[in-house]
Automatic annotation (TrEMBL), chains A, B:
It comes from Pseudocitrobacter cyperus. It comes from the Bacteria. Coiled coil: none annotated. Residues 1-19 form the signal peptide. Its EC number is 3.1.3.-. Pfam families: HAD. The lineage of its organism: Bacteria, Pseudomonadati, Pseudomonadota, Gammaproteobacteria, Enterobacterales. Keywords: Hydrolase, Metal-binding, Signal. GO terms for molecular function: hydrolase activity. Gene3D superfamilies: HAD superfamily/HAD-like (3.40.50.1000). This is HAD family hydrolase. The keyword Signal applies.
C-alpha cells in the first residue's frame, strides 16, 4: 500500500522521468511471461499467490548475469594473476602450465583440462588471506578492461538482467546467485553490480584456515574441501546455503539444468524458469552447443520446451545488452 | 522514524502493557552493557556508529540459546532415532555401539568418542532425503519432552536470549546462528523458536546428493564432505556463509572462542562479545570446566577478561531462564 502511494506521488512529481521496470527488454513474449508470472505470484487474490516468505529466486552468473566469453572473467583474472605474480615465483619457471599462461597459449591451457584449471586456481586463489584475495580482485577489476567491450568487467552486467533483479526485489523476491564462479571472487562485485549482498552469493568454494595473528585474526584461503558449484551440485548448494526451495530459476546452460529442475519441482508454488540463449554475435556472443569456453546449452533447450520455461532470444528480446551509462565505450563501437 | 511514531502511538494506546525489551534480564551490568553497546552502535552522531549494512551478529546455539545438558538435544534425537529405527535394521543387532544405545548405556556411547558420534550421525542423519529428515525432526520435536523441564525442546529457548535476538533485530541487526549443531536439524526449529530464517542458520553439515525422481527431485543426505562447525571452523563458516565480519558474537564455551576473537578483531567496528556462563543449577545447570556433555568453558573466561567481553552470570543476570508461557510445566516445579 505504502509502495503504491509513494509510486503515485513520485509519478505525479516526476512524470515520465520514472524508469519503466524492464525498459531494456523488448515487448516480446519473454518480458510478458516474466511480468505475468510476477503478477500472478504477488496477487493475494489468485491461486498462484506466493507468500513473501517463500519468494526466493536463484540466478546463475556467468552467461546469465554477465558474459562468459571468450573466457569467464574469473579465468581471465587467474591468467592475469599468474602473469603478475610470476616474477616473484622463480620456481614456476619449469612449470609447463605456467609457461603456457605466460606465453598466452590459451589452447595449451585449455588442453590441461580440469586438473590444469584447479592448479591455476591453487596458484592464484589459495595460500593467501581472504583480505589479500579481495584486494587483488578489486585491484584487477579497477585496472583491467574487457578487450572487446572496452570497459571494466564490473560494468558488463547485462542491463535487462540487472533490471530483472530490481523488478523481482521490488516485488518482494529475495535474489540469490548460484554460480560455478568462485564465491569470494563474486562477492567482491555482487553488491555494487547486482545489489546482492555477500550472503546471497553462492559459488564454488574451498574451506579456509583460521589463525590468530599478532594484531588480530586471519582466514587463509586453501584448496581443502573444494566444492564445484555446478550442475547437480547447484541444488545441493541451494539447500546448504539458502535452505529454501526456490520459486524461480534463471540460467543459461546445461550446468544450470539441475538447479532449474529442482526449482520447477517445488511442490509449494507455481514456479518460473528462464534460460538466456546467446543469439547475438553482434552485440555479445552467439553460442549454445559449442560455446567459446563455458556455457554449453543443448539439453537445457530441450527440457525448457517440455517444462514451458521461457527461453530468452538475446537478439530479439533485449533492447540493450549492456547499459550505455555503465559502459560508454559500447556506444562508439 | 516510522518505528518511533508507531511506538508512541502504541504506548499511548496500550500504556504499560507493552513489553519492555530485555524484561527477562535483571538490571545488572550485563544488561546495561548490551543496551549501551546497541545505543552506541545505532546513534549516527557517535563515533561508535555502525552502519545498518554492517550490523551482522552471530550466536552459538547449544548452551547459548538453549540448553546442552545433560546431552545436546540433537544427540538425544540421534539416540531416540536409533531406538525407533532399530526394529527395521536387523543388521544392527551385532553392532556394539547400537547395542549401547539400545541399552541406554550413555557411558559406553560417550566412550566411543568422536568416531562413535559420527557413526550415530551416519545412522540417523544420512542416506535419507532432506524432506524425510525434516519430517523426522518435526515428529520427534512434537512427541518428545525434556525429562527435567517437562516440555518440548522447541519451548526451551532461553527467554533472555530470545528477547536479545528481538532487541537486536529491532535495532537493525541481522541475527545469525553459528553452531556446532547440524544445519538441517536446527533449521527445522529456528524460524519458530528464534525468528531466524534457514539461510541465517549455519551449522555442521555434509554435502547432499541431488537426483531426479519419478515425480520431481530429491536431495539425499550423505556424510560426504562433513564439516564440523566448531572452534576454529566457526570463523571459516562465517566467512563462507555470511561473508561479513560480525560486529557482535554471543557464545558460551571455548568452542566459541575463535568466532568471538574473529569478531573482536573486526577493524571496522567497536564490537561486542558476550559469554553465557552456566551458573544456575537450580533453574538450569551449573558448569564450566567440567560440563555434563559439551560446553567446556575455561579459556573463554580468561580471554573475556582480557578483551572486556560481558560474562553473563545466568543466576544473577537472568530474571527468568525459560518463558513460563512457553513451558508452563516450569512454573509448577
Amino acid at each position: 500500500m505504502k509502495r503504491v502511494l509513494l509510486s503515485l506521488v513520485l509519478t505525479s512529481l516526476c512524470g515520465s522521468a520514472i524508469a519503466e521496470p524492464l525498459s531494456a527488454w523488448n515487448d516480446t513474449a519473454a518480458k510478458k511471461a516474466i511480468v505475468k508470472w510476477v503478477e500472478n505470484a504477488t496477487d493475494a487474490d489468485r491461486s498462484t499467490f506466493i507468500p513473501p516468505e517463500e519468494r526466493y529466486v536463484v540466478f546463475d552468473n556467468d552467461g546469465t548475469l554477465w558474459p562468459e566469453a571468450p573466457l569467464t572473467f574469473q579465468i581471465q583474472f587467474a591468467l592475469d594473476e599468474v602473469n603478475r605474480l610470476a616474477p616473484q615465483h622463480p620456481e614456476w619457471a619449469n612449470d609447463p602450465l605456467v609457461q603456457s599462461v605466460l606465453n598466452n597459449d590459451i589452447k595449451a591451457v585449455a588442453a590441461a583440462g580440469e586438473p590444469g584449471l584447479i592448479k591455476l586456481l591453487a596458484l592464484t586463489h589459495s595460500n593467501i588471506t581472504t583480505t589479500e584475495f579481495n584486494q587483488r580482485v578489486a585491484n584487477w577489476i579497477s585496472s583491467k578492461k574487457d578487450p572487446r567491450f572496452g570497459c571494466g568487467y564490473d560494468r558488463l552486467g547485462y542491463q535487462p538482467m540487472r533490471q530483472l533483479l530490481d523488478y523481482l526485489r521490488e516485488n518482494g523476491f529475495k535474489t540469490w546467485i548460484i554460480s560455478g564462479g568462485g564465491i569470494d571472487f563474486m562477492r567482491v562485485l555482487s553488491q555494487k553490480m547486482y545489489g546482492i549482498p555477500p550472503e546471497q552469493v553462492v559459488g564454488s568454494f574451498a574451506l579456509g584456515e583460521f589463525a590468530l595473528t599478532g594484531d588480530g585474526t586471519e582466514i587463509k584461503k586453501t584448496m581443502q574441501g573444494a566444492f564445484n558449484d555446478d550442475a547437480t551440485n547447484k541444488p545441493v548448494a541451494i539447500h546448504l546455503f539458502m535452505g529454501h526451495r526456490p520459486v524461480a530459476a534463471f540460467g543459461n546452460s546445461d550446468g544450470d539444468l539441475a538447479m532449474m529442475q529442482y526449482t520447477a519441482a517445488n511442490p509449494r508454488a507455481k514456479t518460473f524458469g528462464l534460460i538466456v540463449h546467446h543469439t547475438d554475435a553482434q552485440r555479445e556472443y552467439a553460442y549454445d552447443s559449442h560455446p567459446p569456453a563455458s556455457g554449453k546449452l543443448v539439453e537445457g533447450l530441450q527440457v525448457a520446451k517440455e517444462k514451458g520455461w521461457t527461453v530468452v532470444d538475446m537478439q530479439k528480446d533485449w533492447k540493450t545488452v549492456f547499459d550505455p551509462a555503465q559502459c560508454p565505450a559500447m556506444e562508439t563501437k
